[in-house]
Amino acid sequence: xxxxxxxxxxxxxxxxxxxxxxxxxxxxxxxxxxxxxxxxxxxxxxxxxxxxxxxxxxxxxxxxxxxxxxxxxxxxxxxxxxxxxxxxxxxxxxxxxxxxxxxxxxxxxxxxxxxxxxxxxxxxxxxxxxxxxxxxxxxxxxxxxxxxxxxxxxxxxxxxxxxxxxxxxxxxxxxxxxxxxxxxxxxxxxxxxxxxxxxxxxx
Length: 203
Ligand code: MN3
Hints:
By secondary structure, this protein is mainly α. The protein has eight helices and three strands, in the order H-H-H-H-H-E-E-E-H-H-H. The protein has a three-stranded antiparallel sheet with strand order 2-1-3, with helices on both faces. Helix 1 packs antiparallel against helix 3 and helix 5 packs antiparallel against helix 7. The site of manganese (III) ion has 7 residues, from helix 1.
């Protein structure tokens, strides 16, 4: 099988109390696995595509054969988005940003509080399932949302960080209180990893 769910880089309870262990277990072991299973099943029809990363498929969705394009968009997106998501969180994460991303946030948003406020407000308003993103777009950090599992990569934008606002990401602990989840989530972020993504985006 060309695509696999990467192991979580910490245990299920590592992000407590902000994200509960049960949510992490279902989210990683069931939801992410389902995207990978669906992606692998689609690629069986065009095995040559399996040599590409999910990110590359999403960057070039129009080159993906039409009979599997929607499946790749949804499930390749689900795979790439979640693979990023696990790595940009850590036990004992959060706090003020560090490194080069801290300077870029000050440049583009003024300060960290203004940045998180804009991210949380924008992402809270995403109707239905989707993601909130900070993307690198034309030399600037920009906050956007996408529906479903759509990746900013398909719009030529590199995702520096993203938060999952499908109900499966937060409903067990936060029920309908998406804004509370969004606020709490910043206590999990891994600024070292986000800085690595920022460096990669600039290449
Ligand atoms: Mn999810």
